[in-house]
Structures are given as structure tokens and as C-alpha cells.
Amino acid sequence: MSAAPHPVIDPVELTRDLIRRPSVTPADEGTMDIVERLLTGLGFHCRRMPFEGVENLYARRGAASPNLCFAGHTDVVPTGAAEAWTAGPFEAEVRDGVLYGRGAVDMKSGIAAWIAAVSRVLAGGDPPGSLSFLITGDEEGPALHGTKRVVETLMAEGEVIDACVVGEPSSQHALGDTIKIGRRGSLNSWITVHGKQGHVAYPDRAANPAPVIARLLARLADHRLDDGYQGFQPSNLEITTIDIGNPAANVIPAEARARLNIRFNPTHTGDGLIAWLNAVAGEAQAESGLRVTLEHLCSGDAFLTEPGPFVTAVQDAVEAAAGRRPEASTTGGTSDARFIRAMAPVLELGLVGQTMHQVDERVPVSEIEALAEIYRRVIVTIFDRA
């Protein structure tokens, strides 16, 4: 390797710079400009990919294989009541060695740590392959015009990513104790039973949707979806709201609505669960004589990156840098890994997620530094074994 005169990035100061930009989904507030400027300075070819007002960036350095990608998001969730924070949510205050701010954990620090790691690797010369970044501003929101669209575009163009690390806060109790090699799928469904409004004293002149939706929901909730899948917990269906909106005690309502979410393992697909929900709703409609309509939104199917050279290399690198071997887990919610898995083997590796999305989201600055070193080890180990 020949020495390359690229700047070495400070991950803590970069995290602070990013936090100071209040990039609540879908606002960007200049975060992508910061990332692009730094990556350009490190020799990356940066391509901005805006879709429907959402800022996205794909940056690549090198043309050879393998192409190791890092994926992350610059957008953050709302702060809640700002006065409840002990430090301003976008001031990036460091107090007693701890950095406070929205995005400190999820996941501006992850982006900063990987950029810092890349700068340290490049300071020693060019790696025997390519490095790339896939950064979106639409992970915490609908996720329709972010990573999903970028992946679709890159695949259509023939771009190849050989492996991808997503910087979500995967650690549970100590930095590096857990990586996520899979995630359950998520399906939201909205159910409406259409009845006929009328006076409660004259039920023969009306059609009450309330007992129909109650029986339908009980049938769905009582159904055991599965007993689990290798590496995954059992799928679960949760009713999240039941709404009739009837303020009068003497009126039979015209409609009853409900919403549910299913978190499902690879036993199922979103399409298969949608077909099952529609079938059960059809039975309720036939039994009651009332029209039942459903709408569905599957944000992603379940996926699993099987243990193998990529997962092992990451585990070995984390163990070498942090002194602990991470457990390969599939627990938790969804992430943009669900889109990337169509293009490449993918896993999640990042900070301890205890305070993400909370008031006073925070991280010790020492852990940001440690994460940058873990990421450096990951990059070097993967290229050494390529």
C-alpha cells in the first residue's frame, strides 16, 4: 500500500457537527452536505440521489471488488418537549464526558465513526477493493424514498455491493456485545367494518359494526402464527387501536375501525399474511352480512444473513477491538437492512441503544472513539480475508 495524504477525521467532533443540524425526518438541514464534503475530501465519488424531496447519497471510492458498503441515516426522530432535556437536543453539549443530543446514538455517531475509521484506513494506503456509503434522510419516517429507492436504482444500474454494515445501535448492554444478522418483517393493516347508523332502541333498523369487528379481532388475536423460526422468536400480531368515535350513548355507529401490526419471522411473507387477513375478514363479512374492507402496508419481509465468512469476520474484528465477541441476534424492530439485503449480505453493528429516541439521548464520547476503532478493525479484517 502507498501512503495517501488524506485527513484523519475526529469522530466526536463530526458527530457534534451533525447533531447541530436539526434533521428531523424528512428535513436535511445540511447534514448531507457535511457528509458529502468530507467523503469528497477522502477521494470518494459522491452522487446525490434525491427522491420526492428526500436527500440520499451514494458514494464510492475505488472500482475493484469487493465493495464494502456502510449504510446509515442522517434523519432523526422528533425531540419531544425540548424543555424536558437537560441539554439542548441540537446543541451537542458534552458534559462529564458524555455527548447529549438527538441522534447521538441513533445514528449520527455511527456515520461519524465509520467516516473516521475510513480516514484512518486510508491514511495507511488504499485498501484492495472499494469502499462505499449509502446514506439516507428517510429512515425514521415512511422509508419510501430513501434506501429503498437508492437500492432499486443501484440494482437497475448493475452496481454491485459485496457486503454491507448498517450503523444502527445494535449493542444491548456493552459496546460490541451484539450484532443484528436478521430482522423480522413488519405488516400494518387497517380494518373497517361498515354498518348502518341507527337508534339503539330500534336495532332492526340499523346494523351495528362494533360486535363484528370485536369478533373479528378476537379471531385474529387468538390465532397462533407460528412457534418461531431458527434464530427468530415467534411472530406476533398486536392490535394497536380500535376506533368507533361515537360520542352518543343512544346511537348505533355507522363504522368501526381497527389497526394491527404483525412482526413476523421468515416462516411468513407479507403477501402470505395479507392473504390470510383478507380471508378471515371475508369470513366475518359472510357471517355478518356487513362489508369489511382492509388496507395493508408491509414495510419489509423478514430476512436473515446466514452465518459465514462475512459475519465471522465482523465478529472477529469486534472481539479483537472490544474484547468481547458479539452475539448474532435477530431481535428488535426493523431497519433499512431490510432493503439492502436484496443487494448484498447485510448486518447491523453500532452503539448501545439504551437512550435512542429518548429525552436526553446520549453517548459517552469514549464509546464513539471505541466504535471508530471497531469499524477500522472491521474494514481491515474484511479486506484482509477477501
Kindly summarize this structure in a few lines.
The protein has nine helices and 19 strands.
How does this model look, in words?
The chain is an alpha+beta fold and 386 residues long. 30% of the residues lie in helices and 24% in strands. It is built from 9 helices and 19 strands. A 6-stranded mixed beta sheet has the order 1-2-6-3-7-18, with helices on one face. A 4-stranded antiparallel beta sheet has the order 12-14-10-15, covered by helices on one side. Strands 4-5-19 form a 3-stranded antiparallel beta sheet. Strand 1 (45-48) and strand 2 (56-61) form a beta hairpin. It is elongated. It starts with 10 loop residues before the first helix and ends with a helix.
Radius of gyration: 24 Å
Structural class: alpha+beta
Task: Give the mean pLDDT.
Answer: 96
| N-to-C SSE string, H for helix and E for strand | HHEEEEEHEHEEEEEHEEEHEEHEHEEH
Quickly count the helices.
9
- Determine the N-to-C terminus distance: 16 Å
Task: Write down the overall geometry.
Answer: elongated
How much of the sequence is in beta strands?
15-25%
- Strand elements, count: 19
| Low-pLDDT runs | none
Specify the biggest β-sheet: 6 strands, mixed
- How much helical structure, as a percent, in the residues? 25-40%
Strand order of the largest sheet: 1-2-6-3-7-18
